[in-house]
Please model this.
Amino acid sequence: MTPLSKLKDAIIDMRYLLSRGYKREHAANFIASRYLLSKEERAILYRAVYDPIQAEIHKQKKVKPEFISQRILTIDGYNVLITIESAIRGRTLIICDDGFIRDISAVFGKYKITELTHKSINLILNFLSKYSPKQVLFFFDSPVSRSGELASLVRKYLKKFNLVGDAKAVKQSDKAVLKHGEVVATSDHVIIECAKYVLDLAGEIIKRHYPVSLITLN
Model:
């Protein structure tokens, strides 16, 4: 079995187990062990593969950028920033079963403000300024180091682009984006499950500026 065929078989098995009600983490761990998958391959299973019903539910919630006009947009800050930065760095990004674009890297509890941070914020706000949202609210998880500093930086950029909005460091950004927004910008599947309307903000920007970094699941 070639590495590519092994991963394809693993993806098929993952879809099946999810459709049978298996928990995502348990299914990914079981299949990764069975096929002796690498850490990156396991990440593909966990972050990119969905059963057909769940994938369709996510697709139905996904909105086009024009939809945010005159609506309050809340942004899952680290999710969007890290995904865009991954594209700039040339890392693997996947068009997932549910149509959302996700990276397969993971940053837990740490984040460094770099030149890529500034570039990513510029890309985000330049993109949003074309669609006239009523308000743009960024939320960052406060347990992550330097979240307050990052929120302050985003507030300065919001003024630069003449966008009405704010940026805050909060204990639980997932709850904040769901509570305060009419449309949520994220690719986090847990948030998507609870939201009514979702903009794949990072994905829209990546498709325009870094399309060569994208791969599609078969």
